[in-house]
Design brief:
Layout lengths: L1 H12 L2 H18 L5 H22 L1 E3 L2 E3 L10 H33 L3 H24 L6
Antiparallel strand pairs: 1-2
């Protein structure tokens, strides 16, 4: 029985359209059962911070293969010192943004995590965000945009 279940789960995780909702539902169950602790808020804030930092840093620094670019200045390669400065400014601004976002999310989530449907929505939504981040960061790399 356990072997059949493992085989079924493995087949589900081969297909992204099944894996994303399954991970979302699994995380929503965890969020719901840990709702009386601070772990769900910490988990949600960490995921949102990771994804928003990935997005925001890509505004300030880009490139690859030894070439540093600052998208705000165009697609021309930049000196390492300028790329470092843009990266540092990006990290600073992202940390301020994520801190404000985390403060707001903590206050909002405290009221809603007791509802199982809200937990399901949050879990699936976070799973979709992580998938979108993975898609943009790794699978679309090297493709013309």
């Amino acid at each position: 029985m356990l072997k059949q279940m493992n085989k079924f789960l493995l087949s589900c995780f081969k297909k992204v359209y099944l894996a994303v909702p399954l991970v979302g539902l699994g995380s929503s169950v965890i969020l719901y059962f840990l709702r009386s602790t601070s772990y769900p808020t910490f988990f949600i804030i960490t995921l949102v911070a990771w994804i928003s930092s990935d997005f925001c840093i890509s505004i300030f620094v880009g490139g690859g293969g030894g070439i540093g670019q600052i998208p705000l200045l165009g697609s021309k390669s930049q000196y390492k010192g300028l790329v470092f400065l843009a990266f540092f400014i990006g990290i600073f601004l992202v940390s301020v943004f994520v801190n404000l976002l985390a403060t707001g999310l903590t206050q909002i989530l405290a009221n809603f995590l007791s509802n199982p449907l809200v937990c399901i929505f949050i879990g699936v939504f976070l799973s979709l965000l992580v998938f979108a981040d993975l898609q943009v960061k790794y699978y679309n790399r090297g493709k013309s945009r």
